[in-house]
Automatic annotation (TrEMBL):
<dbReference type="GO" id="GO:0006749">
    <property type="term" value="P:glutathione metabolic process"/>
</dbReference>
<protein>
    <recommendedName>
        <fullName>Hydantoinase</fullName>
    </recommendedName>
</protein>
<dbReference type="InterPro" id="IPR045079">
    <property type="entry name" value="Oxoprolinase-like"/>
</dbReference>
<dbReference type="GO" id="GO:0017168">
    <property type="term" value="F:5-oxoprolinase (ATP-hydrolyzing) activity"/>
</dbReference>
<dbReference type="GO" id="GO:0005829">
    <property type="term" value="C:cytosol"/>
</dbReference>
<dbReference type="InterPro" id="IPR002821">
    <property type="entry name" value="Hydantoinase_A"/>
</dbReference>
<dbReference type="Pfam" id="PF05378">
    <property type="entry name" value="Hydant_A_N"/>
</dbReference>
<dbReference type="InterPro" id="IPR008040">
    <property type="entry name" value="Hydant_A_N"/>
</dbReference>
<feature type="domain" description="Hydantoinase/oxoprolinase N-terminal">
    <location>
        <begin position="9"/>
        <end position="161"/>
    </location>
</feature>
<dbReference type="Pfam" id="PF01968">
    <property type="entry name" value="Hydantoinase_A"/>
</dbReference>
<feature type="domain" description="Hydantoinase A/oxoprolinase">
    <location>
        <begin position="182"/>
        <end position="317"/>
    </location>
</feature>
<dbReference type="InterPro" id="IPR043129">
    <property type="entry name" value="ATPase_NBD"/>
</dbReference>
Length: 663
């Protein structure tokens, strides 16, 4: 096989699988691709396992490595970041969850970049010295620092002098208004610094160990890539890099510069869109773990339904269960077909489990759902939590088979749920992956155990297992269709669309839909095994629906499709005064890192802003070995006008630079 000199490796460490793809970028050829289970809590193990499956000789010829991973998202969700102290400067609200790790001091600027009041250096000194032995980094955010960051810079210098610790400033991460969100963003970024360094150093060491001499980049959540060194300083920008990889991979594999991507993963399904080769970006900052940030991320809809989502029935009485009581997700479980490979005894356990005819069905109380210890160390549990945990076994069992006399015979489902959320209890259950084993469309593990689970659930509704699985496929496809329509047209509500599709579309019992939603935008499916859902999705959507070749590793390919990008946002504040003769005296003010400037005309201010931004972009690209001639520049100028009879009050200048990520 002929190999060019432009071979790249993409790796995506997702929620269930870690995917890898070796790509000849000259011919856009996928040379090799592999999948391995993602390892927790450290994804490096999964990366090592998937690399072991690739040709070592081709790996040594690789020139570029680009990675997407969930380490930042998981660290925030699991609250495992490094201890950080946040210093807010100016009149700001303390985030409730950070009240024990935060101080507010005097200082800050106004909306024109002028100082509101002097910075309280003594207050900062006192606070830093009081907490320096309890934290490993500091975050600083000042009021209106995007217009004048001098107080943040001064605070950083003082903290460095006092501690030598890393300091993250809000103005470096966000250029939009929102002091609260900017402070949260700085705090989260600081908490991720050691995690990012550990992970990225390990990846770099692993490639070196394998004889790979590669340029290493990582995909950010806005679809751009950054060198490892930059990511180590700004790891918060990698949250949700997986969804960014999915839409880029969908475009690359399908050859569609404009398309909508549906990425079906193990835990969730993400819907996003790319237009003219650039991912759509949300106007709102990314929200993760309840934290609202100023991190620019791709616009996406996330559905808590994936290949490993729990399929269960919610009913007070099993005899009264209806089709509408069938739930898909939101919790992820081990599929029955895969669990059999790990615990062969589960088939007999399920067969021999006695179910009362009037059983009440809940998430953990199902004919097909088993529990066991996860293997994580149990710590800091209450007495009741410990009692429940100690009842669990190392092998799968039904929750109603335990002795619950300590709780007056009632199963404490609320405590069980807390232990599941703490990852101390693992669930095994019926999933869409099992459904596809029953239909024969995807067979990787044990078919008979999947069929057993389907039969147990189907008998609740007096159905054959095959009919039940066809119903689940249509239900899953409807979930995808609803989110797709919502993404393209937010005039509907989710409830309205569900009612509409149930009323006019296929209700799961019929043979086809009467009315479908039309889209001229191609819909690209990626994730394994998405091609199985094309017929069902077509019942609800009238569109070109494609599962391209190599769809199963679309995210790994997407890591390589991201571009180097630099975005510069500037604001021109306008001071205007109407003279007695009706003329206007106008001054155009702009603050950049070069300082405060005033201009006599709008054209002069805009020209200066564009020139400054382009210089900043070219400097960034040069640092990444990109020539000016290879940079694509896009400029947007927007005037804010409140009264058409008066001059604008503000001009926003956005300049973006893009370049191919190549060696």
């Amino acid at each position: 096989m002929f190999l060019s000199d432009n071979i790249s490796l993409g790796i995506d460490a997702g929620g269930t699988y870690t995917d890898a793809a070796l790509v000849d970028m000259d011919g856009r050829r996928i040379l090799q691709s592999q999948k391995a289970l993602t390892t927790y809590p450290n994804p490096l193990g999964g990366i090592q396992n998937v690399l072991d499956l690739l040709d070592p000789e081709i790996l040594k010829k690789t020139k570029l490595l680009s990675v997407s991973t969930t380490f930042a998202t998981n660290t925030i969700l699991e609250k495992n970041g490094a201890p950080v102290a946040l210093i807010l400067i100016g009149s700001q609200k303390v985030p409730q969850d950070l009240k024990d790790n935060c101080v507010v001091v005097k200082g800050g600027h106004n909306y024109r970049g002028a100082e509101n009041e002097p910075l309280d250096l003594e207050g900062i000194r006192e606070y830093v010295l009081s907490v320096k032995d309890k934290v490993s980094a500091f975050a600083v955010s000042s009021f209106y620092s995007i217009l004048n960051p001098e107080h943040e810079k001064t605070a950083r210098e003082l903290i460095h002098e006092l501690t030598g610790y890393p300091v993250v400033c809000g103005y470096e991460l966000a250029h939009a208004l929102g002091a609260y969100e900017r402070g949260v963003t700085a705090y989260l970024n600081a908490s991720l610094l050691p995690v990012a360094r550990t992970f990225l150093d390990a990846v770099a060491e692993e490639t070196k160990r394998r004889g790979m001499n590669v340029k290493t980049t990582m995909l950010k959540c806005n679809g751009a890539v950054a060198m490892f060194g930059e990511v180590m300083e700004r790891p918060v920008e990698t949250i949700f890099s997986g969804p960014a990889a999915s839409v880029l991979g969908a475009s690359f594999l399908s050859g569609k510069e404009t398309c909508l991507a549906i990425d079906v993963g193990g835990t969730s399904t993400d819907v996003s869109m790319i237009e003219d080769g650039i991912p759509q970006i949300s106007d709102l900052g990314a929200t993760v773990g309840g934290w609202k940030t100023k991190v620019r991320a791709i616009k996406m809809e996330t559905i808590a339904a994936g290949g490993d989502s729990h399929i269960w029935v919610r009913a007070d009485n099993v005899l009264e269960a209806r089709f509408s009581d069938i739930m898909i997700g939101p919790r992820r479980v081990i599929p029955l077909c895969r669990a059999f490979v790990m615990y062969p005894e589960i088939a007999e356990t399920i067969k021999n489990h006695w179910t009362p005819h009037n059983m009440s069905l809940a998430e953990f109380m199902q004919k097909t759902t088993l529990v066991l210890k996860s293997g994580y160390v149990a710590a800091n549990l209450s007495d009741d939590e410990m009692k429940v945990y100690q009842k669990m076994r190392d092998e799968p069992a039904f929750i109603d088979d335990f002795d619950w006399k300590d709780f007056d015979g009632d199963i404490p489902f609320n405590i069980v749920e807390m232990l599941v959320n703490k990852r101390l209890i693992q669930l095994i259950g019926f999933t869409p992956t099992d459904v596809l084993h029953v239909t024969g469309e995807f067979v990787e593990w044990d078919v008979e155990t999947a069929q057993l689970g389907a039969r147990k659930l189907a008998e609740i509704f007096g159905m054959a297992k095959e009919d039940f699985c066809r119903f689940i496929k249509r239900k899953f496809a409807k979930i995808m269709a609803v989110e797709t329509v919502l993404f393209l047209n937010d005039t509907f509500s989710r409830d309205e669309l569900n009612v509409f599709m149930d009323k006019f579309g296929d209700n799961g019992i019929g043979t086809g839909s009467y009315l479908r939603f039309k889209s001229d935008i191609p819909i690209i499916l990626i994730g394994a095994p998405v091609q199985c859902f094309i017929p069902e999705l077509g019942m609800f959507l009238d569109a070109e629906i494609i599962a391209p070749e190599h769809y199963a590793v679309g995210n790994a390919v997407g890591c390589l499709a991201g571009k180097l990008a630099k975005r510069v946002e500037l604001r021109v504040d306008i001071e205007s005064k109407e003279e007695e003769n009706g003329d206007w005296t106008i001054r155009y003010n702009m603050f950049t890192t070069e300082g405060q400037r005033a201009f006599p005309t709008k054209d002069a201010a805009v020209h200066y802003g564009e020139t400054f931004a382009k210089k900043d972009i070219y400097k960034y690209m040069k640092e990444n070995d990109v020539a000016e001639s290879d940079v694509e520049i896009r400029v947007k100028v927007k005037e804010m006008i409140y009264d058409p009879q008066k001059p604008p009050v503000q001009i926003d200048i956005l300049v973006e630079g893009f370049a191919e990520n190549k060696v």
